[in-house]
Amino acid sequence: MKRLAASALFAAEAEWTTMFDGKSLDGWKAAENPAGFKVENGEIVVNGTRGHLFYLGADGKASFKDFEFQAEVMTTAGSNSGVFIHTTWQDKGWPSHGYEMQVNATHTDPIKTGSIYNVVKVNPAPHKDDEWFTYTITVKGGRVTAKINDKVVTDYEEKAADIQGDRKLSAGTIALQAHDPKSLVRYRNLKIRAL
User: Fold this and answer.
1) Number of alpha carbons in the 13 Å side-chain half-sphere of residue 152
2) Element (H, E) at 13
3) What domains are there in the chain, each with its CATH number?
4) pLDDT confidence of residue 23
5) Which band of pLDDT confidence, cut at 50, 70 and 90, is reported for residue 7?
6) Which listed residue, of 38, 94, 169, 172, carries a Cα 20 to 30 Å from 31's Cα?
7) Burial of 28: CB neighbours in 10 Å, binned 0-12, 13-18, 19+
8) What letter does residue 5 receive in the DSSP assignment?
9) Angle at alpha carbon of residue 88, lines to 110 and 187, rounded to 5°
């Protein structure tokens, strides 16, 4: 056995997978409100009544356990959205699997970007509306880290008391949330890599 095998494996694990081609929602599937998600100027534009856009990947079976996810995001005044992690396809309702990583700078909800919804609260918001920011979410074992523009805003180790049903770390995919008709949020350059 060659010693290079381990480093080659590490290199393969470190490769980023582009989740969005900038032109279409290929590899994604919208639940409940497909009209809430469109592609415009190389961005996924999220605007409309409650709905979720699930990343299924090219083979329709996307699932991640330990990973690093990154996207550029822009909120607009009063907007609310979210990035679900370790979730699974659900045709309606708020996803019951995994955790929601909040996206919100000025919506009336006091739980701001970088928060793990109903688990870890970030306030004030670590970014401003109408400016692109980089959102990095890392899951490794029982730990979730959220960075905004490379600054850690949440570093959370899962606790048994925070697990409610399927709201827990396990494995699953990513989903983007359309929250309400007054919320407009843009996502671009979405990518993910296994850790």
Assistant:
1) 6
2) helix 4-14
3) 27-194 (2.60.120.560)
4) 98
5) very low
6) 169
7) buried
8) H
9) 55
pLDDT tens digits for 16-55? 999 999 999 999 999 999 999 999 999 999 999 999 999 9
The structure tokens listed for 4 are 């290079």
Q: Which two tokens stand for residue 110?
A: 């006091």
Q: Which residues of 117-154 are buried (b: 16+ CB within 10 A; e: fewer)?
A: bebbebeebbbebeeebebbbbbeeeebbbbbeeeebb
Angle (CA) 151 50 92, round 5°: 110
- Please write the tens of the pLDDT for every residue from 89-143: 999 999 999 999 999 999 999 999 999 999 999 999 999 999 999 999 999 999 9
Nearest in space to 186 (alpha carbons), one of 79, 49, 90: 79
Token reading at 157: 């180790």
**Phi, psi (rounded to 5 degrees) for 96:** -95, -10
* Cβ atoms within 10 Å of 4's Cβ, excluding its own: 9
